[in-house]
Amino acid sequence: MDFAVSEDFLARPRDDPKGQNSGLFEHSLKTAYKAKEIAASLSDEELANTAFYAGLLHDVGKLNPYYQILFSSGWVDGDYLRAHAIFSALAVHWLANTAAFSKRTQKQILFAVAGHHTKLTQFAKSLAFIENDKTLFERSFKDTYNNLYRFSQTVRELKEFKDLDWDYCLSKFKNPIPRIPQEPDYTVDEGNSFVEDFLDFSSVFSALIQADRGSFFEKFPQPAFGISLNTGVLVRTGSDASLPKIRTNFQERLLLNNKFEDNLLILKAPTGIGKTKIFLDIVNKFLASPSRRFERVFYFSPLLALTDDFEGKLYTDNAVSVLNQADAEKVLVYNHAFKGSLPKKRSSNDSCISLDEEAENTEFFKTPEYFERESFNKELIITTTQRLLMVLYSNEVSEKKKLLSFKNSFLIIDEVQTIPKVLLPNLIALLKVLTKKYHSKILLVSATIPDELLGLPMVATPDDVEEQYLQMTAKRIEYMEVLDANREVPLLRVDERVLFMFNTRRKALCFFEKVSELKPDAVYLSTGIRKRDREKIIENLHGSTPATVVSTQVLEAGVDVSFSRMYREMAPLDNIVQAMGRLNRECERSDPLLTVFRLLDNNHMPYSELEVEESKKRIPQLHSSKDLYDALSDYYKTVSSENLTNKNLAKNLDDYMKRLNFDDVWKFVKDHALPLELGDSLLVPDPQDFEKIKKDFLSSDSNKGLGKIYTHYAKLMAQLPGSIEKINGLEDLLDEELLEVGVLFPKEKALGEVYDSKVGLDKWVKKT
Hints:
The protein is about 45% helix and about 10% strand. It has about 775 residues and is an alpha/beta fold. It has five domains: about 5-215, Orthogonal Bundle (Hypothetical protein af1432); about 235-465, Rossmann fold (3-Layer(aba) Sandwich), CATH 3.40.50.300; about 475-640, Rossmann fold (3-Layer(aba) Sandwich); about 645-675; about 680-765, no CATH class. Helix 23 (about 530-540) links the parallel strand 10 (about 525) and strand 11. The radius of gyration is 29 Å and the shape is globular.
């Protein structure tokens, strides 16, 4: 049976003024030129041409009769294989087999086209599924020939298509039993940078995905950063008037003494000095120079608490704010709990709903606004360090779509010391190539700098002012072998704000139970408390009211609360530095004290054993915050030199990149650099919302719908201390109907048994 390709599919758009159902010819040209335009600003002309051909040929596989039947009748009977990317890739494999394309260019086009509906992968791996549908594949392959021949007659003399070997390609498709090429793993040529090669392949893929998805809209967004930042409102005040003056002096001299000409540089400054204001002032400095304008500015942080803090500093309902209303609309907040504009995120803070309103309508997913959001085409993007790693290393379409938006941009990576050290050498090499290829600037920000980052250009800071600041904000440090609540709590002054911080929820809970007997008003914080409750607790901690708090590391960084006394379980030195940032932030007390106590169970988790052991050797000898800062250099050198495991693992990552093994690269980063979910998430409703929330989940008819509803109620989620199967007695208290569709939701009458008003889901810690 011969299903010929239709003329309108070959050449002209259907009755569709917006171009959403373009014919193959028009769509191919539009995608090709858009992909070339997107990649043209990279410092590699060959990449732009490669992106052009990836766009030109990405959909030629729709000449597969399956799609011709589908487009003409709207249904298919299963005679053909539903696949077009693989047919497009096969066509590329033979069409680009000419002297006009280098082997490297051929591979870049081939890999991008093969994965543009799935993920970036090597061609041979993308062919594996054919064995499962060999009969359908061979029939589809054979019957594609006539359509491919007619298409070639239409386009082969056009300038865009003339360098392609149509005769060779047609001869391959005419073979009734095709010999499917099994390409060996591709390895970069000797002398080439494998990191650069990895980024180039990813860049072609990203250009194709953005061009293909954006080709259905009349306007393709192209931001130019022009947001006015009123950083004067970030000047902090304190009980001691000299502290704000020192901060201002530090910030002003830093801006005056630096030209910020290096494309990858480090800002090392003490916790509490006002780093947020500093890097926003740097943005303003760039904005004032016409020759240094950016398309976008990105802010990455490792914790949602940090992004929440950053958002709160940028935009409030107050009359005076860093951003005005109009500019706030140009800011995109993008994380697992919320994707949408900054004003919508801020307005959702008082409710459980944490979802861009437009996403309620399924039609929103077809709009330019949705594409703009998912491709990071906004002027200022606030997102997480985890998202940065996903965009750089993942081979998924949804992440790689965002990669080309890093071009001509300013990337701020906050708290860079939290990135696992095993990844840092490769990541820095990748960022160096990115700044060169993408004409971008990257600022790494931290109070502590791991040894793996030494050698990078540093922002010059006024040492004398920093010394004044460190002296004024100095803390005493003591080491304690045993932390005894019955001994320590009665010694606390009635006007103190004290924080006890532990490495795990089990240890925090056990200690809280003892503390609450002595101080019934003590507060508990961990991820076992639902997000909305955590936000209220933290909000109540602002100010100077006496308080006793027991927490995990949820208060370690990015939370603008201050304590006069702190107890911190033994941890790596840089984590202790971060925790110390919550101690006496505005010099409220004359003698702030940090007590580091021995690991309660000698278990180093969740940290590296080497880093904890090296910290244990040093902490007993430290007596002040100055001693702690001074100890960091030797600590980092020792950790770096002795960590043979990290070095071997880092070599594995390099080897995966050299072979362009995109699957293994991403698996490595997921396994070693992204946080593991330690427990299932459970939705904890308010009693009056039970029926509505349950109805929302039960009425959802797809996993995508479930995900959308989860996002809708993100602030009602809390994390269990383990998987549901490992918690004795909990499953019997959950709603059976929702459990069947994978939703963890308590029975209405069991809410009090499931979720404790003080410790949340951590009441189940001892039953895991």
